[in-house]
Amino acid sequence: MRLDKFLANHGMGTRTEVKQLIKKGSVQVNNEVIKKADYKLDPETDVVLCQGEAVRYIDELYIILNKPAGVISATEDHLHDTVVDLMPEYRHFDLHPVGRLDKDTEGLLILTTDGQFTHEVLSPKKHVNKTYYAELDGTVSEETVAKFKAGIALDDGYLCMPAVLHIIEPNVIEVTIQEGKFHQVKRMFQAVGCTVTYLKRIQMGGLKLPADLEIGDYREMTAEEINRVQHV
Question: Residue ranges of the RNA-binding S4 domain (predicted)?
Answer without folding.
Answer: 1-63
